[in-house]
Specification:
The protein is α+β, with helices and mostly antiparallel strands. The chain has five helices and 19 strands. The chain has helices at about 150-160, 165, 205-210, 265-300, 315-325; strands spanning about 10-15, 25-30, 35-40, 45-50, 65, 70, 80, 85, 105, 105-110, 115, 140-145, 180-185, 190-195, 215-225, 225-235, 235-250, 250-260, 335-345. The strands form four sheets. Strands 12-18-17-16-15-14-13-19 form an eight-stranded antiparallel β-sheet. Strands 2-3-4-9 form a four-stranded antiparallel β-sheet, with no helix packed on it. Strand 15 and strand 16 (about 225-235) form a beta hairpin. The longest helix is centred in the last third of the chain and has 36 residues, at about 265-300.
């Protein structure tokens, strides 16, 4: 999968939350079809290697961590944080092991996540800046979710308003035949949507997030190759859902969703956390279910045949950006464009 991903691989992909990657037990992850093992050395630094011992290809993610090193569960071969083989238990004590080294992947820790660079070129300085992770006055938490569908379908789902009256009926929106105007802008590496509907609301949570009934400013943003940001602003208050998608396989994606919010006071921020965790988990689970249904049908029909409505303008532009990158940049790059559209919910 990585070999066929073109420019899509030239990016940082989230491999785990900072709390998931420890010095107690290695963690196995699959990104773009590559099986990796992540762990922390004695200095606390997170590392990523190919998840296979160089001896007999046993998974190191099933092994143990000790003395800042990782040991294979099959024959006990030991590697350091740089991937160098440092010990073969079956060899005579004091003998020098052969010059063997695990394939290593660049790792960076930012915004509460551990990221792995999957490209062949020089890594970018930073991964996507997950908003409000440690901003004073804001609260934030991650939800990690496995989806049975591909990245393109997921980012479109996360930025799709019409589906909310069906998939999230009663939880997010209810059909009302309201006209919605949107402005869609495409750049070289993003698709940005602004909805012109200040009287919109997001289910019964509106009474909690927006008790003074301020006009709501709703924007959806997609950033290449795999991240969406959905903002709801109510005057000085805000609720932001940022999802970075890590492709494991063509129809398997792990999504790290950061929920960031600021309400009327620090006390309200703190008191609302349990409710928001329950609510956001329920809404995401509804998306899990519909994405599994769609993914199953896409696999069954082996090819995508999509007809579009005016409400799908930003989806079309997302698909064009991702397909151009997947092809390795073959042909004319999708250009900058801004267009208005109208649909109903």
């Amino acid at each position: 999968m990585r070999a066929d991903s073109g420019l899509l691989k030239e990016s940082w992909y989230a491999a785990g939350t900072a709390d998931e990657i420890t010095d107690r037990k290695p963690v196995g992850r699959t990104i773009l079809g590559e099986r990796l093992v992540l762990w922390r050395g004695a200095d606390g630094r997170a590392v990523a290697h190919a998840d296979r011992c160089m001896h007999r290809n046993a998974p190191l993610s099933e092994g143990e961590l000790f003395d800042g090193r990782i040991g294979c569960p099959y024959h006990g071969w030991v590697y350091d944080t740089d991937g160098r083989l440092v010990s073969i238990p079956a060899e005579v004590d004091g003998s020098k092991p052969p010059e063997v080294r695990l394939p290593c992947w660049p790792v960076i820790e930012r915004h509460g996540l551990v990221w792995v660079w999957m490209g062949e070129g020089e890594p970018d300085p930073d991964p996507f800046p997950m908003p409000y992770w440690d901003t004073p006055g804001w609260k934030a938490y991650y939800m990690v979710t496995e989806f049975d569908n591909g990245v393109t379908q997921l980012v479109e789902n996360f930025m799709d308003v019409p589906h909310t009256v069906f998939v999230h009926k009663g939880w997010f929106r209810t059909a009302s035949r309201k006209q919605v105007r949107m402005t869609v802008e495409r750049t070289d590496d993003s698709v940005l949507v602004t909805y012109h509907q200040p009287d919109d609301e997001i289910g019964f949570t509106g009474r909690i997030l927006n008790p003074s009934n301020e006009p709501m400013v709703h924007t959806d943003k997609f950033y290449m190759p795999n991240t969406t940001r959905v903002d709801y602003q109510f005057g000085q208050r805000g609720f932001v859902i940022t999802s970075t998608c890590t492709p494991e396989g063509p129809f398997k994606t792990r999504v790290y969703t950061l929920i960031s919010y600021t309400l009327s006071s620090r006390m309200v921020n703190r008191l609302m956390r349990p409710f928001l965790k329950f609510y956001t988990r329920r809404v995401i689970q509804q998306d899990v279910e519909i994405m599994e249904v769609q993914g199953r049908n896409l696999k069954a029909h082996t090819a995508e045949f999509f007809h579009h409505s005016e409400a799908d303008l930003h989806h079309i532009w997302i698909e064009e950006l991702r397909e151009w990158s997947r092809s390795g940049g073959v042909g004319e790059r999708p250009g900058a464009e801004t267009r208005d559209a109208v649909f109903y919910i």
